[in-house]
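User: Please predict the structure of the protein below. I'd like the answer in structure-token form so I can feed it into my own downstream comparison script.

Assistant: Understood. Taking the following sequence of 371 residues as input:
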Amino acid sequence: MYFDKRKTIEVAELRTLLENKEAVHILDIRPRSERDEWHIPESEFVDVYERLKVGEKNLFSGVHFSSNIPVVTLCGAGKTSMMAMEQLRENGIEAYSLEGGMQAWTSAWNTAYTMDTSETHILQVRRTGKGCLSYVLGNNGEAVVIDASLDAKIYHDIVKNYNWNIKYVVDTHIHADHYSRSRELALISNAQLYLPNQKIVDYPYNPMYDNDLLYFGNAVLRAIHTPGHTHESYSFLVNEESLFSGDTLFTTGVGRPDLKTSKEGAKQKARLLYHSLQRLMSLGDSIVVYPGHTGHPVAFDGKLIGSTLYDIKGTVDMLQLNEEDFVGSLLGKVPHTPPNYEEIVKLNLKGNSKGVDLVALEAGVNRCAIS
């Protein structure tokens, strides 16, 4: 891989290196606590952050790297990693700092692919630095995009590569951890935008109701109203074999019911979630669940994040509880509130992010699931 004499490398460039399996060392120099919360799976950790901050020199004199493999240093926002890069260069190592750091890495993505028994292509598009999972489904030249969380052009280019036309763009709910790109994608693709029926967004859309069907190619998507995480949450069952569960059900947990509501409201939503999960659990054990998020960084390994309902029933203990115990257990495990979620919700209701720094707004650990 050719690098010029710049001191930094952009997120898109590093993403391409990892996607193409090119040799690169990623050196994470953040505090260990930040590393433990979220990291790049392909990176190595060195505990030098505090010593770099106070100006200590020669911190990498004992670290040995292959002379023909470049090193990319990583910190939270791309400033302290510049110090690490300079010290590595002083040791004769080809080093670059990741521009924008881990904050900017929230826009990085990779993909995994499968095909169901009805020959519907399933492309899982993963924001590896954020944990958001979106989906491009294709059948007989027509496509559906679920929960678009990346720049709309990325989905547009993916579909173009497969020679598909986007027929529908759908969201499982009004998101609180990222700005939805679904409206923009529908506009640039001349596709129909479907959202769960509600009266809170400020722009036109096609309302989706329980058991509505959307046909694309020879495939069919069935909408299942699964309130709990939010009142308008939906899950989508495709060809009666693939379940796109949004923030209702994850492979190792369930959605949180507490955002933007009172303590009593969270309890009521937890009860709704219990019944929604019971409805999903009544579907066939062989159905594969593809969630809307993951709580772990996603490696560039092409391995799908998903699991059968049978396996999830055996993994998520809360699913075995009765309603009262489920509600008590769920509310007793609520994680820290995600940053900026109220501002993100406001943008998603407005359907416009003009003038907003989405990189800064969306930065932060994914906290949608309760395990």
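That's the full token string. The chain is about 30% helix and 25% strand.
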